[in-house]
Write a structure and sequence with these properties.
There is one protein chain. Helices cover about 25% and strands about 35% of the residues. The chain is an alpha+beta fold and about 120 residues long. The protein has one domain. The strands form two sheets. Strands 1, 4, 5, 6 and 7 form a five-stranded antiparallel β-sheet that branches. It has a two-stranded antiparallel sheet with strand order 2-3. The protein is globular and about 35 Å long. The protein starts with a strand and ends with a helix.
Length: about 120
């Protein structure tokens, strides 16, 4: 599953240091307790990380817990940090996520959006 993750300025989350391009594994994944946390919706990452002081990445997760929170936060046993995203690109991913949702798929918003911002 693709998703988005926030970090502090040192690319750390909960005192765990990450590197772009690396894959990480753990034995357990329990929401808000263990595993590698991420959000499916990029905008939900902003609930946990201040955009002025944080860094963001696109990730790929495997062995995902069935648990969900009141937003799109999930936890996984395996996570790969695919690419760091500058804030403009991160917001572009958020718009893409929204416009590709079921609510907008029946409208022509996607084609308008893709012409406006290239991501």
């Amino acid at each position: 599953m693709k998703g988005y993750k926030g970090f502090n300025k040192d690319l750390k989350c909960c005192n765990f240091a990450y590197k772009i391009g690396e894959t990480y594994k753990t034995e357990t994944a329990k929401l808000c307790n263990s595993g590698f946390h991420f959000c499916e919706n990029p905008l939900h990452v902003l609930r946990y990380y201040n955009p002025a002081t944080s860094r963001f990445a696109k990730i790929e997760a495997e062995d995902i817990s069935e648990e969900t929170s009141n937003d799109s936060k999930r936890t996984a046993k395996t996570i790969k940090i695919l690419a760091e995203l500058d804030f403009k690109t991160f917001l572009g991913c958020a718009f893409r996520f929204i416009f590709e949702s079921k609510k907008f798929k029946t409208r022509n918003f996607s084609s308008i959006f893709y012409k406006w911002i290239k991501i």
